[in-house]
Amino acid sequence: MPTIGEPGRAAAEIGARHPTHHPESADHELSECAVPGAQIRAASVRGLMHRYNRKPRQDRFSVCYDDATATMLITVCDGVGQFELSHEAAAFVAADVPRAYLKHGDWVTTIAEVNERLTDFANRAAERVRLCDVPADPRMATTLAAAAIRFGHGRWSASVAWTDDSTVWLLGEGRWTPVTGEASGQDGDGLHSTKVRALPHPEPTLHVAEAEMTGGALFVLTDGIGEPLRHARQVQESLAQWWSGPPDVFDFARQVGFARKGNLDDRTAVGVWFDPQ
Which residues are registered as beta bridge partners of 160? Predict the structure, then answer.
Protein backbone atom coordinates (compact mmCIF):
# COMPACT_ATOMS: atom_id res chain seq x y z
CA MET A 1 0.00 0.00 0.00
CA PRO A 2 1.20 3.60 -0.50
CA THR A 3 2.75 5.32 2.52
CA ILE A 4 2.41 8.87 3.81
CA GLY A 5 5.04 9.68 6.41
CA GLU A 6 5.95 7.01 8.96
CA PRO A 7 3.83 3.90 8.20
CA GLY A 8 3.99 2.42 11.71
CA ARG A 9 4.27 -1.23 12.72
CA ALA A 10 0.56 -2.04 12.32
CA ALA A 11 0.65 -1.45 8.57
CA ALA A 12 3.49 -3.96 8.20
CA GLU A 13 2.26 -6.56 10.69
CA ILE A 14 -1.52 -6.64 10.21
CA GLY A 15 -2.22 -8.27 6.88
CA ALA A 16 -5.15 -10.39 5.80
CA ARG A 17 -6.96 -11.78 8.86
CA HIS A 18 -9.85 -14.14 9.53
CA PRO A 19 -13.11 -13.09 7.86
CA THR A 20 -15.73 -11.51 10.09
CA HIS A 21 -19.01 -13.16 11.05
CA HIS A 22 -20.86 -10.68 8.81
CA PRO A 23 -20.87 -12.13 5.28
CA GLU A 24 -22.55 -9.02 3.83
CA SER A 25 -19.58 -6.84 4.84
CA ALA A 26 -16.67 -6.97 2.38
CA ASP A 27 -13.25 -5.78 3.47
CA HIS A 28 -13.04 -3.48 0.45
CA GLU A 29 -15.60 -1.88 -1.84
CA LEU A 30 -14.84 0.22 -4.90
CA SER A 31 -16.63 1.75 -7.85
CA GLU A 32 -16.03 4.02 -10.83
CA CYS A 33 -18.42 5.77 -13.19
CA ALA A 34 -18.72 8.74 -15.50
CA VAL A 35 -21.51 11.16 -16.31
CA PRO A 36 -21.56 14.14 -18.67
CA GLY A 37 -19.18 16.60 -17.03
CA ALA A 38 -17.55 14.42 -14.40
CA GLN A 39 -15.57 11.28 -13.51
CA ILE A 40 -16.26 9.51 -10.21
CA ARG A 41 -14.09 7.16 -8.14
CA ALA A 42 -15.19 5.59 -4.87
CA ALA A 43 -13.47 3.25 -2.43
CA SER A 44 -14.02 2.00 1.11
CA VAL A 45 -11.29 0.10 2.95
CA ARG A 46 -11.54 -1.86 6.20
CA GLY A 47 -9.23 -0.30 8.78
CA LEU A 48 -6.33 -2.08 10.43
CA MET A 49 -7.92 -2.01 13.88
CA HIS A 50 -11.11 -3.66 12.60
CA ARG A 51 -9.02 -6.30 10.81
CA TYR A 52 -7.06 -6.99 13.98
CA ASN A 53 -10.22 -7.28 16.11
CA ARG A 54 -12.16 -9.26 13.48
CA LYS A 55 -14.76 -6.52 13.27
CA PRO A 56 -16.57 -5.61 10.03
CA ARG A 57 -15.90 -2.50 7.99
CA GLN A 58 -18.34 0.08 9.35
CA ASP A 59 -18.01 2.62 6.52
CA ARG A 60 -20.45 2.57 3.59
CA PHE A 61 -21.03 4.72 0.50
CA SER A 62 -23.46 5.08 -2.39
CA VAL A 63 -23.20 6.80 -5.78
CA CYS A 64 -26.40 7.47 -7.77
CA TYR A 65 -27.30 9.60 -10.79
CA ASP A 66 -30.76 10.87 -11.68
CA ASP A 67 -31.02 11.31 -15.45
CA ALA A 68 -34.18 13.44 -15.31
CA THR A 69 -32.57 16.18 -13.22
CA ALA A 70 -28.87 15.55 -14.08
CA THR A 71 -28.18 15.21 -10.36
CA MET A 72 -25.42 13.11 -8.83
CA LEU A 73 -26.08 11.87 -5.28
CA ILE A 74 -23.03 10.95 -3.18
CA THR A 75 -23.58 9.52 0.32
CA VAL A 76 -20.86 8.44 2.75
CA CYS A 77 -21.60 6.94 6.18
CA ASP A 78 -19.31 6.02 9.06
CA GLY A 79 -20.75 3.59 11.59
CA VAL A 80 -20.12 4.54 15.22
CA GLY A 81 -17.52 2.10 16.47
CA GLN A 82 -18.83 1.56 19.99
CA PHE A 83 -21.88 -0.32 18.68
CA GLU A 84 -21.54 -3.82 17.19
CA LEU A 85 -24.18 -3.33 14.48
CA SER A 86 -23.27 0.16 13.29
CA HIS A 87 -22.26 -1.19 9.88
CA GLU A 88 -25.93 -2.04 9.36
CA ALA A 89 -26.95 1.54 10.16
CA ALA A 90 -24.33 2.90 7.77
CA ALA A 91 -25.50 0.60 4.97
CA PHE A 92 -29.15 1.51 5.56
CA VAL A 93 -28.54 5.26 5.43
CA ALA A 94 -26.22 5.11 2.41
CA ALA A 95 -28.91 3.24 0.50
CA ASP A 96 -31.89 5.32 1.68
CA VAL A 97 -30.59 8.89 1.36
CA PRO A 98 -30.63 9.02 -2.48
CA ARG A 99 -34.24 7.79 -2.58
CA ALA A 100 -35.39 10.32 -0.01
CA TYR A 101 -33.51 13.28 -1.52
CA LEU A 102 -34.83 12.65 -5.01
CA LYS A 103 -38.31 12.45 -3.51
CA HIS A 104 -38.14 15.63 -1.42
CA GLY A 105 -35.40 17.78 -2.98
CA ASP A 106 -34.16 19.24 0.31
CA TRP A 107 -31.87 17.95 3.03
CA VAL A 108 -33.93 18.78 6.12
CA THR A 109 -36.93 16.73 5.02
CA THR A 110 -34.67 14.01 3.60
CA ILE A 111 -32.69 13.45 6.78
CA ALA A 112 -35.82 13.65 8.96
CA GLU A 113 -37.41 10.85 6.94
CA VAL A 114 -34.26 8.73 6.80
CA ASN A 115 -33.73 9.19 10.54
CA GLU A 116 -37.29 8.02 11.25
CA ARG A 117 -36.90 4.96 9.02
CA LEU A 118 -33.50 4.16 10.55
CA THR A 119 -34.98 4.40 14.04
CA ASP A 120 -37.51 1.72 13.13
CA PHE A 121 -34.81 -0.38 11.45
CA ALA A 122 -32.58 -0.14 14.54
CA ASN A 123 -35.43 -0.98 16.93
CA ARG A 124 -35.98 -4.23 15.02
CA ALA A 125 -32.28 -5.18 14.98
CA ALA A 126 -32.67 -8.04 17.45
CA GLU A 127 -35.42 -9.64 15.33
CA ARG A 128 -33.33 -10.14 12.20
CA VAL A 129 -31.66 -13.49 11.53
CA ARG A 130 -27.88 -13.37 11.11
CA LEU A 131 -24.97 -15.77 10.77
CA CYS A 132 -23.63 -14.51 14.07
CA ASP A 133 -25.50 -14.23 17.36
CA VAL A 134 -27.23 -10.94 18.08
CA PRO A 135 -24.92 -8.96 20.37
CA ALA A 136 -26.00 -8.29 23.94
CA ASP A 137 -26.24 -4.62 22.99
CA PRO A 138 -27.85 -4.53 19.51
CA ARG A 139 -27.72 -0.75 19.12
CA MET A 140 -26.36 0.91 15.98
CA ALA A 141 -25.54 4.43 14.82
CA THR A 142 -23.88 6.19 11.91
CA THR A 143 -22.60 9.58 10.83
CA LEU A 144 -23.44 11.01 7.42
CA ALA A 145 -22.04 13.31 4.75
CA ALA A 146 -23.80 13.69 1.42
CA ALA A 147 -23.68 15.86 -1.68
CA ALA A 148 -26.27 16.54 -4.38
CA ILE A 149 -24.32 17.74 -7.43
CA ARG A 150 -25.85 19.37 -10.51
CA PHE A 151 -24.04 19.94 -13.79
CA GLY A 152 -24.68 22.47 -16.50
CA HIS A 153 -23.21 25.19 -18.76
CA GLY A 154 -19.59 24.49 -17.84
CA ARG A 155 -20.21 24.82 -14.09
CA TRP A 156 -21.26 22.58 -11.27
CA SER A 157 -23.02 23.26 -7.99
CA ALA A 158 -23.26 21.05 -4.92
CA SER A 159 -25.68 21.10 -2.02
CA VAL A 160 -23.92 19.40 0.88
CA ALA A 161 -25.35 18.01 4.12
CA TRP A 162 -23.60 16.42 7.08
CA THR A 163 -24.34 15.40 10.64
CA ASP A 164 -20.99 14.88 12.33
CA ASP A 165 -17.36 14.05 11.55
CA SER A 166 -17.60 12.83 7.96
CA THR A 167 -16.50 15.71 5.76
CA VAL A 168 -16.65 17.22 2.26
CA TRP A 169 -13.68 18.95 0.63
CA LEU A 170 -12.86 20.81 -2.57
CA LEU A 171 -9.54 20.29 -4.32
CA GLY A 172 -8.41 22.92 -6.81
CA GLU A 173 -4.93 23.93 -8.00
CA GLY A 174 -3.35 21.63 -5.42
CA ARG A 175 -5.16 23.20 -2.45
CA TRP A 176 -7.72 21.62 -0.14
CA THR A 177 -10.73 23.66 1.03
CA PRO A 178 -13.22 22.24 3.54
CA VAL A 179 -16.91 22.63 2.71
CA THR A 180 -18.04 21.11 6.01
CA GLY A 181 -17.26 22.53 9.44
CA GLU A 182 -15.99 20.97 12.62
CA ALA A 183 -17.72 17.99 14.19
CA SER A 184 -20.59 18.67 16.58
CA GLY A 185 -20.31 18.19 20.34
CA GLN A 186 -21.38 15.38 22.62
CA ASP A 187 -24.94 14.51 23.58
CA GLY A 188 -25.34 12.21 26.51
CA ASP A 189 -27.98 9.81 25.23
CA GLY A 190 -25.61 7.01 24.19
CA LEU A 191 -25.87 7.34 20.41
CA HIS A 192 -22.58 9.10 19.91
CA SER A 193 -18.85 8.65 20.12
CA THR A 194 -16.64 11.22 21.86
CA LYS A 195 -17.10 13.57 18.89
CA VAL A 196 -20.32 12.88 17.06
CA ARG A 197 -24.09 13.16 17.25
CA ALA A 198 -25.08 10.24 15.09
CA LEU A 199 -28.23 8.84 13.50
CA PRO A 200 -30.71 7.60 14.61
CA HIS A 201 -31.41 10.44 17.01
CA PRO A 202 -34.60 11.97 18.43
CA GLU A 203 -33.35 15.43 17.37
CA PRO A 204 -30.74 14.94 14.65
CA THR A 205 -28.25 17.73 14.03
CA LEU A 206 -27.95 18.64 10.37
CA HIS A 207 -25.65 21.15 8.66
CA VAL A 208 -26.08 22.29 5.05
CA ALA A 209 -23.73 24.22 2.76
CA GLU A 210 -23.53 25.15 -0.92
CA ALA A 211 -20.52 25.07 -3.26
CA GLU A 212 -20.02 26.06 -6.88
CA MET A 213 -16.99 25.84 -9.17
CA THR A 214 -16.01 25.64 -12.83
CA GLY A 215 -13.53 22.78 -12.36
CA GLY A 216 -11.50 20.98 -9.72
CA ALA A 217 -12.79 18.08 -7.67
CA LEU A 218 -15.06 17.38 -4.72
CA PHE A 219 -14.43 14.64 -2.15
CA VAL A 220 -16.78 13.13 0.42
CA LEU A 221 -14.75 11.43 3.17
CA THR A 222 -15.15 9.57 6.42
CA ASP A 223 -12.93 10.74 9.26
CA GLY A 224 -10.41 7.95 8.62
CA ILE A 225 -9.17 10.23 5.84
CA GLY A 226 -10.77 13.55 6.82
CA GLU A 227 -8.96 13.85 10.15
CA PRO A 228 -5.40 13.30 8.87
CA LEU A 229 -6.24 15.50 5.88
CA ARG A 230 -7.33 18.30 8.20
CA HIS A 231 -4.31 18.14 10.45
CA ALA A 232 -1.31 16.80 8.48
CA ARG A 233 0.44 18.75 5.72
CA GLN A 234 2.04 15.52 4.44
CA VAL A 235 -1.41 14.03 3.87
CA GLN A 236 -2.68 17.18 2.18
CA GLU A 237 0.26 17.29 -0.21
CA SER A 238 0.30 13.56 -1.02
CA LEU A 239 -3.44 13.30 -1.67
CA ALA A 240 -3.44 16.51 -3.71
CA GLN A 241 -0.73 15.03 -5.93
CA TRP A 242 -2.34 11.59 -6.23
CA TRP A 243 -5.80 13.03 -6.87
CA SER A 244 -4.97 15.93 -9.17
CA GLY A 245 -6.92 13.91 -11.76
CA PRO A 246 -9.08 10.79 -11.63
CA PRO A 247 -6.77 7.79 -11.07
CA ASP A 248 -7.35 4.18 -12.04
CA VAL A 249 -10.00 2.89 -9.63
CA PHE A 250 -7.70 0.20 -8.20
CA ASP A 251 -4.94 2.76 -7.65
CA PHE A 252 -7.53 4.99 -5.97
CA ALA A 253 -8.51 2.19 -3.59
CA ARG A 254 -4.87 1.58 -2.66
CA GLN A 255 -4.38 5.31 -2.08
CA VAL A 256 -7.47 5.47 0.12
CA GLY A 257 -5.86 2.72 2.23
CA PHE A 258 -2.53 4.55 2.61
CA ALA A 259 -0.30 3.52 5.51
CA ARG A 260 0.35 6.13 8.19
CA LYS A 261 1.29 5.64 11.83
CA GLY A 262 -1.66 6.04 14.16
CA ASN A 263 -4.31 6.04 11.42
CA LEU A 264 -6.02 2.66 11.91
CA ASP A 265 -9.68 3.47 11.21
CA ASP A 266 -11.82 2.48 8.22
CA ARG A 267 -11.29 4.76 5.21
CA THR A 268 -13.85 5.84 2.62
CA ALA A 269 -13.53 8.41 -0.13
CA VAL A 270 -15.76 9.34 -3.07
CA GLY A 271 -14.13 11.75 -5.50
CA VAL A 272 -15.88 13.68 -8.29
CA TRP A 273 -13.58 15.27 -10.90
CA PHE A 274 -15.31 17.93 -12.96
CA ASP A 275 -14.68 18.55 -16.65
CA PRO A 276 -16.12 21.91 -17.79
CA GLN A 277 -15.74 20.76 -21.41
Answer: 147, 209
Helix (H) or strand (E) holding 234: helix 233-242
- Taking residue 73's Cβ as centre, other Cβ atoms within 10 Å add up to 19
Low-confidence ranges of the chain (pLDDT < 70): 131, 133-134, 182-196, 276-277
Distance CA 234, CA 249 (A): 22
Contacts of 122 (CB under 8 A, 6+ apart): 89, 139, 140, 141, 200
pLDDT at 5: 86
For the stretch 183-203, pLDDT in tens is 443 333 333 334 457 999 998
> Exposed/middle/buried for 115, CB within 10 Å: 0-12, 13-18, 19+?
buried
Alpha-carbon gap, residue 173 to 176, rounded angstroms: 9
pTM of whole model > 0.70?
yes
Order of all β-strands in the sheet with 217-221 = 28-35, 38-45, 267-274, 217-221, 167-172, 175-178
Residues in contact with 90: Cβ distance below 8 Å, sequence separation at least 6, in sequence order:
58, 59, 60, 77, 78, 79, 142
Q: Coil, helix or strand for 222?
A: coil
CB-based contacts of 273, cutoff 8 Å, min separation 6: 38, 39, 40, 41, 216, 217, 245, 246
Distance CA 192, CA 204 (A): 11
pLDDT tens for 56-75 read 999 999 999 999 999 999 99
CA 174 – CA 151 distance, rounded (Å): 22
